Amino acid sequence: MTSSVSDIKRLFIGQIELEGRRAMGYILSCGDVIEAVGHGTPPTVECVEVETFPEPMTIKQGDFNAHSHPEQSIYTDLVDRSWDLGTWCRNTIYRYSPFITPKQVRLACRRAFGRIALLGASSVMVSFYLHGGKGNVNDREVIAAAKDVGIRLIFGRMTYDMVSPQAYEGKKKAQESYYESPDQGEAYLRELMADEGPTVMVAPAVHSMHASTAQAIERAINLGYDLKRPVQFHLSEDQGDVDISLKEHGVRPVVFLKSMVDSCRIPGLGRLVFSDCCWLDDQERSIMADCSIPVVLNPRMNHRVGVGESDLPSLLSSGISVFLGTDGEASNDDLSVQGEREFLKGRYSGVLSSSKIEALGRQPFQFLDGEIGPLAPGRLCDFVVESDGRTVHLFVGAEPVVRDGTLVNLDMEGDIEAPLAEEIEAMKKTVEI
């Protein structure tokens, strides 16, 4: 009897890092799921494909880049590192994004996902709001780019339903291109779920206190509970979002969200995933811990554009689960999750142990009916094979995405960099508003 793709068994053998210990071991996968993993002699199983990784290579859990704006990789070579957030936005997204084409979105996301994979991340969670008044046209290009590369994607389809009347013309035009009503956002989200697959999950998201109305926030959270999906939310990235919440609702952002639970507008906060969180207070951290809300920190980006700093020691001491992201490549040094850890080690030297920081972002996370995370039976078979800190191979669902330091499915120069360079030159000719 011929095995189907879903039950093909593969055996990977080599030095493997499990629970902080490195020794000879194995991963046995059945389809895209880990059936067995451990140190020592692998089990005897018939009809398996066997691959052995010689020393000094080490098999490790693949990283999870838990917050990314991949289309922003198109701006990477156009930015000045001295720009603060407002200047950065004026010269990148507010200048160009209203005119971005589907082709440009796909190429920029290929660049981002390709670089993320080559840096050892097997999964990425995206926040995307560049809908451009075209429904899911641009959104599908992000998903297509992830499939082109082979990386696992949690696609947060974001509702952005506010246009600032006092904004300068370029910003207002950009916001108008992002705008969708909560009804439109939900309809397009449900439509886009048809594009899901073994490596793609679509989830609701909202932008922030400054770009999403209370109605959009309420709708997204209810959708998260209805669909059993995470709901991404930029929370208090800068002081301005706190000020908006205090002015509009009389309380800080997390307290406002808790009030929506107390008034029965939403069933809870446990589906939310907050990013940034630079301006929390103790009461907000307490609510987040009680509601089991995880946080995604983007420390290098926050530092570079000068918006503030997340209080990592207080988050950890509150019992809040912390993941790591890189935000957009153009506002960061690169797309390395390990780079975020190294930055935090320097920032909190003598305050937090290196081992505690190394553990950040390595905990389990829901993916459809499965789970990404530490290598264990029942989890999705995503792992990296490293040598001296360099990604040699990367596997997603037991399928190769990187081989010998090179993307398997795309040529980085011919399929990404060369055509993207042409598109960037075309984009630079866009008339500035």
From TrEMBL:
<feature type="domain" description="Amidohydrolase-related">
    <location>
        <begin position="64"/>
        <end position="386"/>
    </location>
</feature>
<keyword id="KW-0378">Hydrolase</keyword>
<protein>
    <submittedName>
        <fullName>Cytosine/adenosine deaminase</fullName>
    </submittedName>
</protein>
<dbReference type="InterPro" id="IPR050287">
    <property type="entry name" value="MTA/SAH_deaminase"/>
</dbReference>
<dbReference type="InterPro" id="IPR006680">
    <property type="entry name" value="Amidohydro-rel"/>
</dbReference>
<dbReference type="Pfam" id="PF01979">
    <property type="entry name" value="Amidohydro_1"/>
</dbReference>
<dbReference type="InterPro" id="IPR032466">
    <property type="entry name" value="Metal_Hydrolase"/>
</dbReference>
<dbReference type="GO" id="GO:0016787">
    <property type="term" value="F:hydrolase activity"/>
</dbReference>
